Write a sequence for this structure.
């Protein structure tokens, strides 16, 4: 059972009545040879697994795990690899051999490919990728974008929320990290990419959007699917209605994160639906947006809290 504790003070609050003779000290805890009582070094939630006592911090940097879907930003172009910010303690790396070449050519990378690396990704570009490997020495993540579901991101809005990769708040590992939502007011289809690292991408759905389309493309058809468009940095024309609905979705996600709710498909859809209902109500009553902002926020929180209660029943 999880027990919420106060932040450690200068008097070193005890984590529990247990001592090191019966319980092992885990992450976020410590004890001394002269004093067997276990103390907390972090503010968070006490977790007891068999005889191991640890503390899950309220806020922490993302810890990569193999198979995680992450959204990252290119910060440096190096020899045969890119350095990517994924909100982890260390920068992740994306090797040149771990991306699809334009035209879907399957071959070893050579010096010519190395010279053209900035035509694929350059500093500041956003991408969605999968964690392929974790370094045994430093724990740095190695990414890949070989699937057509991954690659460069454009036509959208970047959003960063706090997420611990499975904690109570922020983005959590769920059954679907990428999906498409049909927005109201003529906004059309909007693709949502929830990176486990707390980075989120909301974008206009296009015919060449590889993150949500053609997930089962075979190797024999990859040459027809991977084109130079995949590495284009130019955004398509986005209508005013689509931009407004993307901003609406972003506001709903911020409300979830600010109030400690998990961010996944169910909570995002529920909060967006609640916002639309309140928007229709404000139009009927003739109230301005400034008068309903706080009310809308509270109603979104109530709707998501009701969803969580129904899930636990």
């Amino acid at each position: 059972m999880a027990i919420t504790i106060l932040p450690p003070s200068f008097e070193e609050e005890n984590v529990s009545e247990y001592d090191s003779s019966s319980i092992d000290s885990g992450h976020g805890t410590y004890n001394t040879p002269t004093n067997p009582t276990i103390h907390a070094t972090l503010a968070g939630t006490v977790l007891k697994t068999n005889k191991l006592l640890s503390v899950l911090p309220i806020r922490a940097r993302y810890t990569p795990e193999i198979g995680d879907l992450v959204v990252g930003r290119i910060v440096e172009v190096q020899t045969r690899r890119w350095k990517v910010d994924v909100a982890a303690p260390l920068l992740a790396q994306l090797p040149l051999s771990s991306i699809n070449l334009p035209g879907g050519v399957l071959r070893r990378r050579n010096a010519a490919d190395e010279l053209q690396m900035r035509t694929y990704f350059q500093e500041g570009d956003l991408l969605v990728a999968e964690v392929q490997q974790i370094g045994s020495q430093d724990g740095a993540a190695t990414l890949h974008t070989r699937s057509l579901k991954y690659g460069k991101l454009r036509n959208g809005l970047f959003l960063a929320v706090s997420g611990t990769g499975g904690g109570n708040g922020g983005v959590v590992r769920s059954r679907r990290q990428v999906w498409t939502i049909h927005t109201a007011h003529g906004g059309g289809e909007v693709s949502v990419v929830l990176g486990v690292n707390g980075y989120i991408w909301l974008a206009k759905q296009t015919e060449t959007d590889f993150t949500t389309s053609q997930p089962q493309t075979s190797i024999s058809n990859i040459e027809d699917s991977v084109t130079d468009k995949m590495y284009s940095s130019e955004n398509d024309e986005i209508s005013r209605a689509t931009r407004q609905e993307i901003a609406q979705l972003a506001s709903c996600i911020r409300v979830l994160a600010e109030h400690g709710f998990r961010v996944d498909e169910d909570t995002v859809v529920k909060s967006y639906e609640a916002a639309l209902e309140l928007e229709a109500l404000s139009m009927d009553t003739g109230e301005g947006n400034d008068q309903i902002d706080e009310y809308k926020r509270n109603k979104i929180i109530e709707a998501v809290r009701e969803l969580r209660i129904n899930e636990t029943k």
User: Anything to note?
Assistant: Residues 67 and 176 are 13 Å apart (CA to CA). The chain is about 25% helix and 30% strand. The radius of gyration is 23 Å.
